[in-house]
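Q: What would this chain look like folded?
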Amino acid sequence: MLTLKQLQDGRDEVIERLKIKNFDATAIVDQIIALDNQRKLTQTESEALQAEMNKISKSVGQLMQKGDINAANEARERTAGLKEQIKDLSSTLASVEKELLDLLVQLPNLPHQSVPSGKSAEDNLQVKEGGKMPELKDALPHWELAKKYKLIDFELGVKLTGAGFPVYKGKGAKLQRALINFFLEEACAAGYEEVLPPLMVNEDSAYGTGQLPDKEGQMYHVGIDNLYLIPTAEVPVTNIYRDVILSAEQFPVKNCAFSACFRREAGSYGKDVRGLNRLHQFDKVEIVQVAKPEDSYKILDQMVAHVQSLVDKLELPWRILRLCGGDMSFTSALTYDFEVFSAAQERWLEVSSVSNFESFQANRLKLRYRDADGGKPQLAHTLNGSALALPRIMAAILENNQTPEGIKIPRVLQPFCGFDLIK
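A: My prediction, written as structure tokens:
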């Protein structure tokens, strides 16, 4: 959530920068500024009346001691009147603050200056690529390979739950587990502390990281308990630091977590969403950092380098895209997407997003830090990234490594899964 100071001090800049996200903020920003001014005036008036009432209340005792009963009663009547005025102002203030918050949460985060203009994924900017493209003939897509080698049962998933909930079997399940362990071990080696978070969160947590109210329709809601199944481990892990003031010696703050992820917006029909390409439930390892503002973009580069090392070690062809304004999330200031190439499908598959949210989430979370000099607490910056999401990584591994003898397992995964070939 943007701060009132950002809007009051930089109205024109905020409006211009949000145009990069194809968002016309003029009307909302002007409403917020007007309401904020009203809030300040109401608060000032209420504080002045409170001060006057306190002063009169003190005089009542003095008047009683002097025996001036009439004046004391007049003072009491005056304080009673002031109490009613203050009560009315408090009601007005609460109404204004609610209206103000309702408008503030409608504003997306400001895009970083390096974010390119654009309206869709076609306008994203490729910044780097690597890995060797596989050369395959008559390659089968992963959903056919999964059936041939009895690795994933999509039909059974439909029977048990519905479309988008696959069942992994045999070596498919072992390969899935190997990927999870590999990603976690790599994250821990890079200095991330592992946590195992809940798979459901409350409204405060979903609000804190920006899923509510923006993405309410994309999450599974457990109505009787008013809880939400997590769309990513980012939500519970980042909320560990909700309402927390960090000290200087606690940095760097680095966490990683494996979790199942649940998303209702699994898309429509067609080859782009077949098999593992888009699911309602999938596994992912997430990396999260909390940083001082002056360090956050250096840390973003480090997180991007970490994800690059994973796809390199998996021997997959990859590319990195800097997302344009129209393809960025509501909460992000700058996002890099990783894609790996699928040889059988002959298309790029997104496997990771690595983002800096600057202070947008921290303002919602009331996540602050205090420098070593003990000064006033300041808003921290939050960052996260998929390291990695498993379904499309699994798809690319199966498709790119198919041979007449079977599916070759990347060398780095062999110690984790216990085999080098799926026959």
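Residues 26-66 form the longest helix (41 residues).
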